Amino acid sequence: MSKAISGIIAPITTPFSDDEVNLEFLKENINKYSQTNLSGYLILGSNGENSCLNDVERHLIIQTIVNAKSSTQKAIVGISSDSTRVSIERTNQAADLGADYVSLLTPYYFKSRLSNEALINYFVDVAEKSKLPVFIYNAPKFTGITLSIKVIEEISMHPNIIGMKDASPGSYMQYIGVCKPDFKIFAGSLDTLFPALILGAVGGVVSLANAFPVQCCRLYDLVLHGDTTEAKGLYMKLLQLNRSVSGSYSVAGVKYSMDIAGYHGGQPRLPLLPLTPDEKASIEKAIKQSKIFPQTN
Question: Which positions are catalytic?
Answer without folding.
Answer: 165
